[in-house]
Amino acid sequence: MLMQSDVVVTAFKSSKGEMNGKPYDSTKVYIETGMQAGERSKGIVSTEYTWGLSLNYDLIEKLELPFKAKATFKLVNNGRDSKTILVDLVPEKVQPKAAN
User: Domains along the chain?
Assistant: First the structure.
């Protein structure tokens, strides 16, 4: 099942290398998620999603944080647990970082 949502990206990072002979390659994206309001909780947290390979980092590297984007998620289930996967992320508009 694919779902689209307007999101706010608060952070991102890429990782690529090898550990104990096993290669790894990914981009992690942190997206604002509303906390379920309760008696002793309120606010906004960021949820981590893996977004493909480290090459995806290059697509958003120059954007100023936080930024708004259209996200496509895929909900999958192994028969016991559900997981939400970030399939695509398209920033609303280009917002390059200011030159230092």
Answer: 2-91 (2.40.50)
Mean pLDDT value of segment 13-30: 96
Residue whose tokens read 């508009």: 93
Q: Which 3 state secondary structure label does DSSP give 57? A: helix
Question: Which among 40, 17, 97, 34 has a CA at the least distance from the CA of 65?
Answer: 97
Model confidence band, residue 58 (pLDDT cutoffs 50, 70, 90): very high
**Cα dist from 30 to 20, 79, 80, 97, whole Å:** 27, 27, 25, 18
- Give the type of residue at 93: K
Dist CA 43 CA 51 (whole Å):
25
pLDDT > 90? residue 54: yes
Q: Which two tokens stand for residue 16?
A: 């690529």
- Cβ-proximal residues to 40 (8 Å cutoff; 6+ apart), any chain: none
pLDDT band for position 96 (50/70/90)? low
* Partners of residue 3 on adjacent β-strands: 73
